Amino acid sequence: MLSTLIPIFPLPNVVLFPGVFLPLHIFEQRYREMVKDTLAGDRLVGMTLLRPGWDNNADGQPPVYQVGCVGLISHIEELEDGRYNLVLRGVEKFRIVKEEDLTRAYRRATVDYFEEQMSVADHEAVRRQRHHIERLLTTVSDAPDHPFPSNLSDEEVINALSQYLDLEPIERQALLEQTGVATRCSALIELLEMKAMATGQSDDRGLVH
Question: What fold characterizes domain 5-114?
Fold first, then answer.
């Protein structure tokens, strides 16, 4: 069972999604302490996105979006000068209930988790839309015609695209806050269609409609 009291690592441009891997370089002293404490415990770190204007309070507790994703440290490399390279694997979405008093150098919060479950209908809908997304990608990026290994599940593809496509942080946050993978898939299609129209892609290939 996941701990409901977790360290949170707020960043201005990173949103973690369930099932997706995220490489991080840890150099600030407070987050070095966070990593040490986490490694001695359950290896969980809650990733949250900083709200706009965070840089006006960068040294305090700038506001964050309440919905984030907890990640498990799956790989760790400690460098000679005390910095870390690590990889998080997204585990589950959470909502911050309250932040704890700042008794440590880094922030901690009590959270509620909510699992994203997919019905049979959801799986069928995402399966149909996945191919449309792969076609759309050719109009908004340099992605090849078949960018994903066939062994990746539809859920893994949608979450990975949501995390790594060239989107604004607030767009990725909006995708994370969708109620599940099926609604995230539909929202991602809308974003890609808007970007395709912005590039002047005609709709004679059925890509923008």
Answer: 2.30.130
